[in-house]
Design goal:
The complex is a heterodimer of chains A (about 110) and B (about 130). Chain A is an all-alpha fold. Chain A folds into two domains: about 1-45; about 75-115. Chain A has five helices and no strands. In chain A, helix 3 (about 60-75) packs across helix 4 and helix 4 crosses helix 5 (about 90-110). The mean pLDDT of chain A is about 85. With about 130 residues, chain B is an all-alpha fold. Chain B has one domain (about 1-125). Chain B contains five helices and no strands. Chain B has helices at about 1-15, 20-40, 40-50, 50-75, 100-125. Classes of the chains: A mainly alpha (about 110), B mainly alpha (about 130).
Chain lengths: ~110, ~130
């Protein structure tokens, strides 16, 4: 029932936009595509876990281990530092590589001046 | 200028103790060198750190990172190992603690600072 109502609404909206307001067909297609994307994203956001809720899937045993044993395993008081440079050091190496590639690209394009 | 640089070095060296770290500290240090070029002129900025030195420092930072990681492999552990590779851990909370974290932080700080400086000078001089 709801879907039929939605379809009727979309058809009426199309006719109103096309023949009464006079929107071009290309613009209409773009509008509907954007509306569909907004619809999808809104439902995705609605399905996301509540911010700060203790039942969130991020609160599993991994951050618990970082918080409880991070100091004795890495020796760093700053937990952020112990994560990015010890536990996830390979990821930080990738970040450094991004910087290196960026500077190499700038040098390659601008040095010939 | 010297105060900004001292603060940048402080942020880099205390990366494992306080908020901040290699990326933010390197950005502060690089910004101090960029500020010289902005407030005086391009020649004064280039005199602070020659281009060749900046490039060498930049590649050296990346190499140092990888070599610090390879120490872990040669010590019989995994790549980028810290405690298992036998780095001296020290007392948590002291300046010289946390083994490889301090070394890697210094290397990444050098790399970020020289990257910012090099990119700034390349882009500015590209206008000529």
């Amino acid at each position: 029932m709801l879907y039929i109502l939605l379809a009727v609404f979309v058809v009426i909206l199309t006719f109103v936009l096309r023949f009464i307001i006079g929107v071009e067909p290309r613009t209409l297609v773009t509008l509907y595509l954007l509306a569909g994307i907004i619809f999808l994203f809104s439902f995705t956001v609605a399905e996301m876990p509540t911010f700060g809720s203790p039942e969130n899937p991020t609160f599993n045993e991994v951050p618990q281990r970082y918080l409880e044993q991070g100091v004795e395993e890495t020796g760093a008081v700053n937990i952020v530092s112990s994560v990015i440079i010890d536990y996830r050091a390979f990821d930080t190496l990738g970040e450094a590589t991004v910087l290196f590639v960026a500077i190499a690209a700038v040098a390659a394009t601008l040095r010939s001046h | 200028m010297p105060f900004i640089q001292v603060y940048g070095i402080y942020v880099i060296l205390h990366g494992h103790l306080s908020p901040g770290g290699s990326f933010s500290g390197g950005a502060i240090f690089g910004a101090s060198l960029v500020l010289v070029a902005l407030s005086f002129n391009l020649e004064a900025g280039s005199r602070q750190i020659p281009h060749h030195t900046a490039s060498v420092l930049e590649s050296g930072g990346a190499l140092g990172y990888v070599l610090t990681g390879l120490v872990g492999v040669f010590a019989g552990s995994y790549f980028l190992a810290n405690q298992l590779a036998g780095f001296p851990m020290g007392q948590p909370g002291q300046l010289f603690s946390a083994g490889a974290i301090l070394v890697i932080t210094v290397f990444v700080g050098i790399k970020v600072a020289s990257t910012i400086v090099t990119m700034f000078f390349y882009i500015i001089e590209g206008e000529k």
